[in-house]
Design goal:
27% strand; Chitinase A, domain 3; 157 residues
Length: 157
């Protein structure tokens, strides 16, 4: 009886692992498709130690934010890996840049925007653990990788 329970448990764990692996593959494929659509090259993205991927569409020639408490002004758009846009500063009427301290946003932004030069435009592919993680947020399901295009307009302070 214990053997049956153990086998059923193992099968359940295997099924969950397979489902998670398939979801991860689907997210990766979706992210690669979005990167291509945005003009990036998924085969030539930079991967950081944390797992963040980025591709510079335009390299800026202005200053880089000096630290994690730097306040930046950006234009951005964000998508789920299935292509659903969930937010964009450009969709406001009129388009309004966002301004925030780098230590008050998701980790993928702190890292990805923090290494940009002013005037640059970058695609960020942010794994779930550097985005909203297991809790998600309205419009973003739990454990979702996300794709952003960010244009660094100004380092405010």
């Amino acid at each position: 009886d214990a053997m049956k329970r153990s086998k059923a448990y193992d099968e359940k764990i295997d099924a969950q692992r397979k489902q998670r692996d398939e979801a991860a593959k689907a997210q990766q494929a979706g992210a690669e498709a979005k990167v291509k659509e945005l003009g990036g090259d998924p085969d030539n993205m930079t991967r950081t130690d944390s797992g963040l991927l980025y591709f510079d569409l335009a390299e800026g020639d202005g200053p880089t934010p000096p630290g994690p408490t730097s306040v930046v002004r950006v234009h951005y758009s964000g998508w789920l890996t299935d292509g659903t846009k969930f937010d964009s500063s450009l969709d406001h009427d009129p388009p309004a840049p966002a301004e925030f301290p780098l230590n008050r946003v998701i980790k993928g932004w702190t890292e990805g925007v923090g290494s940009m030069k002013t005037g640059g435009k970058r695609i960020l592919v942010i794994p779930a653990d550097l985005a909203w993680g297991a809790q998600g947020r309205p419009g973003i399901p739990p454990n979702s990788a996300v794709v952003f295009v960010v244009e660094l307009l100004e380092v405010v302070q």
